[in-house]
């Protein structure tokens, strides 16, 4: 009887170890979910291909406004890495203990430009020369959740133009929707990142916002605190800081 009990114990132990090994293997092979600001769509698609080929990894990309993505994470949506288009939304997650602070890195930057449809006859040397009577509608990301919209709002307030133009604003869910509004002629002008403007041949860049008129445009990234793939997630964040990744960012207009 003792012999049988001993054998059964060993069998149960080995089975449990096998299950744990298989579970750990599945976790290691699972795809990383990267929640990234919509303005990074094109760059991240290329970075995904490079990283998967070089590191035998699998990435799932989730794009949206930084505010929307941060709120999803706050509500428990699965994510392993978060890339924000501003510091504020990352700060909120850090204050809520939802990221690993030691993994937080600043990976790139951007600038804000004023765009119009490629067929538009509007011509501005600088944003402070925009005349309210020249335009009927202006596309801008919702400043409450879209960093590009917040930066644009800061610029317009700095130039004493916000109050004159705010009734003409069409608020978009993210910066890519702003681009679409201008491409289709639904709005006369719009404010997007330089990196977004470079993705379209249906618009023209009228002028660029002076960096002194808005907060510095920095993209921070960090590993989500409750990820099951901390090692893999940290490795991806480090990859974003490599010369190879930085070259790709520059290719798409990031600074």
UniProtKB/TrEMBL annotation:
Keyword Signal included in the entry's annotation: yes
Keyword DNA repair: no
Binding, molybdate: 39, 66, 148, 175, 193
Pfam families attached to this UniProt entry: SBP_bac_11 (PF13531)
Keywords: Metal-binding, Molybdenum, Signal
GO molecular function: metal ion binding; molybdate ion binding; tungstate binding
Gene Ontology BP annotations: molybdate ion transport
Taxonomy, superkingdom: Bacteria
PANTHER family per the UniProt record, alphabetical: MOLYBDATE-BINDING PERIPLASMIC PROTEIN, SULFATE-BINDING PROTEIN
Sequence similarity: Belongs to the bacterial solute-binding protein ModA family.
Protein name: Molybdate ABC transporter substrate-binding protein
Organism of provenance: Lentibacillus cibarius
High-level lineage: Bacteria, Bacillati, Bacillota, Bacilli, Bacillales
Gene from which the chain derives: modA
